[in-house]
TrEMBL record:
It comes from Sulfurimonas marina. Residues 1-29, 36-71 form the 4Fe-4S ferredoxin-type domain. This is 4Fe-4S dicluster domain-containing protein. GO terms for molecular function: iron-sulfur cluster binding; metal ion binding. Keywords: Iron, Iron-sulfur, Metal-binding.
Amino acid sequence: MSVYITDLCINCDACIEECPATAIVSADESPLADGEYTYVKPEKCIECVDTTVPKCADVCPTEGCIVWDMPYIPDYDEYYIQGQEAGKYLIRTHKKKGLLSPANQPRPFRDSISLTQRAESMAVEV
Ligand code: SF4
Ligand code: SF4
């Protein structure tokens, strides 16, 4: 990731259309077995690096609902794989490329957000 949608989400789905990376799906389409909330696919999120603010957070009516997660880069491959094993994510497996984990498909991320802020799941501010 990326960003992560927490259980503060009210499933209004306003963020879905705004995402330039088509990384967000509604709870009904969540790949998680028990997905109750709108879900961000970490293997797709590009943290809106080309815009001033993350577009999902910009339209979200629920303060603090969307938080920062770790960068989707090889250093955090194990982090995301463990998260997948814990049921937090379900990373897509590509027919030819295999699991699209950070080592296999790194994504752009914002340098301006520190690793500490990410580890503390700081809310995405806009
Ligand atoms: S930060 Fe940007 S790319 Fe990531 S889920 Fe939100 S809108 Fe999509
Ligand atoms: S805009 Fe916010 S509250 Fe609405 S679905 Fe997205 S994350 Fe949830």
